[in-house]
Amino acid sequence: ETGVTQTPRHLVMGMTNKKSLKCEQHLGHNAMYWYKQSAKKPLELMFVYNFKEQTENNSVPSRFSPECPNSSHLFLHLHTLQPEDSALYLCASSQERLAGGTGANVLTFGAGSRLTVL
Amino acid sequence: GQNIDQPTEMTATEGAIVQINCTYQTSGFNGLFWYQQHAGEAPTFLSYNVLDGLEEKGRFSSFLSRSKGYSYLLLKELQMKDSASYLCAVLAGNTPLVFGKGTRLSVIA
């Protein structure tokens, strides 16, 4: 267990469905992130939250909607997705969003949610 | 923007040494990270370099040359369990970590 828990681990959905991915961290971190990992592509940053406030939206389509009710929980709400959205969605947390030095910037990742859109 | 380049795949023999290179182009460099990711698992932190030189941690070492925009991860005494993807990531300016595509390492007997 990495300290960052993601559910569900696997999700299959149709293009008209609405579903949500959940992330929970037990590390006392203040920053949380959503990354998308597709085959043969680098990890793509989607959203960043720092102290529950969204600080980055990396030009993500509105069919992905994040929610951060508190510093320990992060959701990604999904609706009317496309087949090309099929990927591994990784949640991560860090002590602070940006600060000098190693400790504050080390990202701790969850194991990911494997999404398949039919 | 940032450009991070690393080989797509490498193969090495159990017990050998392998070096995985990473080159980057960025402004406002604040540090370089290496992560290990086994198939189906979370990426895990391996090393962080912000100053030039070699950082050693057991069988793994990481090197950085800021003037050349170059880093490598050195794995010694390779074991089968080292088969994984190795991700190079750069912290620069005011942006969160940007990752390369990763290098898939296969360790064979």
Please describe what this structure looks like.
The complex is a heterodimer of chains A (118) and B (109). Chain A has 118 residues and is mostly beta strands. In chain A, 3% of the residues lie in helices and 54% in strands. Chain A has one helix spanning 102-105; strands at 4-7, 10-13, 18-25, 31-37, 44-50, 53-57, 64-70, 73-79, 87-94, 108-109, 113-117. In chain A, a hairpin with a 2-residue loop joins strand 5 and strand 6 (53-57). The longest helix of chain A has 4 residues, at 102-105. Chain A is globular and about 40 Å long. With 109 residues, chain B is mostly beta strands. Chain B has no helices and 11 strands. In chain B, strands 2, 4, 5, 9, 10 and 11 form a 6-stranded mixed beta sheet that branches. In chain B, strand 6 and strand 7 (60-65) form a beta hairpin. Chain B is globular, with a radius of gyration of 13 Å. The mean pLDDT of chain B is 94. At the A-B interface, strand 10 of A face strand 4, strand 5, strand 9 and strand 10 of B.
Question: Descriptors for this entry?
Answer:
heterodimer, A: 118 residues, mainly beta, seven-stranded mixed β-sheet, four-stranded antiparallel β-sheet, 11 strands, globular, B: 109 residues, six-stranded mixed β-sheet, five-stranded antiparallel β-sheet, 62% strand
In a few lines, what is going on in this structure?
The complex is a heterodimer of chains A (118) and B (109). With 118 residues, chain A is mainly beta.
Strand percentage of chain B: over 45%
Series of secondary-structure elements of chain B, N-terminal to C-terminal: EEEEEEEEEEE
Uncertain residue segments of chain A = none
Helix content of chain A: under 10%
**Distance, first to last CA of chain A:** 30 Å
| Helix and strand run of chain A | EEEEEEEEEHEE
Measured by residues with Cβ under 8 Å of the partner chain's Cβ, the largest interface is: A-B, 23 and 25 residues
The dominant shape of chain B is globular
Structural class of chain A: mainly beta
Question: What is the number of strand segments of chain A?
Answer: 11
Helix content of chain B: under 10%
Number of helices of chain A: 1
What is the residue-averaged pLDDT of chain B? 94
Strand percentage of chain A:
over 45%
Through-space gap between termini of chain B: 40 Å
**Unreliable residue stretches of chain B:** none
Separate helix tally of chain B: 0
* Overall number of strands of chain B: 11
Integer-rounded radius of gyration of chain B: 13 Å
- How is the biggest beta sheet of chain A arranged? 7 strands, mixed
Determine the mean pLDDT of chain A. 90
